[in-house]
Write a structure and sequence with these properties.
This protein is mostly helical. Helices cover about 65% and strands about 0% of the residues.
Length: about 260
């Protein structure tokens, strides 16, 4: 059970994650097309980097006989941002729920509790303007989604999901306040970033494709039986592991930079 998780985690972190750092030059671009492209790629990088390390650690601890929480539960197998956060960094979510949400919700409104939770999460990431803005943005998005679900407007919450994720990551990624505010004007300057993307190393382009395929599988097949437990079983089948093993041999490289994303904060 645990060794396949080590293989999946290593593949996500090393084969997909590291080469994606070659696209980080896009952070300097402030036009809407480049900004959203970078935000989407950085979201993918944070996912495969952090989830990959989490699965790797989970697997190693399991082999050694220790059971620890599964820190990621296929967050992209979600229909709204509420479900998404239930599958992303679950250990931190549980801490924030116990320390802030539960006691505050007993006395104050839902929005008040969410604002405190997400501001606390923002400050955990770093005491900067972009993190504060990120926390406020996600608190409001979470609150709005709950309201939509209560009114059975689930389709709109699904449509909003990718926009919330990408805009949230755009805010999260840039700690240069002036540049971030410039990006949030959403000025259009064509699609010049396409040539820049295609000029990246081929390994980076292949890694980007692998990452998109994994996220797409999580989302498209989220209602299938193999996805129900949200424990990456679809990547742990014998055929999937064989494919990952072969792709790992073919595409492992020294392209990009290896580091734990949260180690840089």
């Amino acid at each position: 059970y645990y060794v396949p998780l080590i293989i999946v985690g290593t593949f996500m972190f090393q084969v997909i994650g590291s080469p994606l750092t070659e696209f980080f030059f896009l952070i300097d671009k402030t036009d809407i097309a480049s900004s959203l492209t970078f935000a989407a790629i950085f979201e993918l990088f944070v996912y495969v980097n952090f989830c990959g390390l989490s699965l790797l650690i989970y697997g190693i601890f399991g082999v050694l006989g220790f059971r620890i929480p599964l820190n990621f539960k296929q967050p992209f197998s979600s229909s709204n941002i509420v479900e998404f956060w239930k599958g992303w960094h679950t250990s931190l979510s549980q801490v924030l729920k116990v320390l802030f949400y539960n006691p505050i919700r007993k006395k104050y409104s839902l929005l008040s509790a969410l604002l405190v939770v997400y501001v606390a999460s923002a400050m955990w990431h770093g005491v900067t303007f972009n993190f504060l803005l990120w926390g406020l943005f996600h608190a409001c998005s979470f609150w709005l989604t709950i309201k939509l679900l209560k009114r059975n407007i689930s389709l709109l919450s699904l449509v909003l999901l990718p926009f919330i994720i990408v805009i949230g990551r755009l805010i999260f990624a840039d700690n240069d306040t002036a540049r971030l505010l410039d990006k949030l004007t959403f000025s259009f300057d064509g699609f010049g970033m396409i040539d820049a993307l295609l000029a990246a190393p081929s390994h980076s382009l292949v890694s980007l494709l692998f990452g998109i395929l994994i996220v797409a599988c999580e989302f498209i097949f989220k209602k299938s039986k193999i996805m129900q437990k949200r424990n990456y079983k679809f990547l742990r089948t014998p055929i999937s592991l064989l494919i990952l093993y072969m792709l790992g041999i073919l595409f492992v490289s020294n392209v990009g930079v290896d580091y734990a994303v949260y180690g840089q904060r």
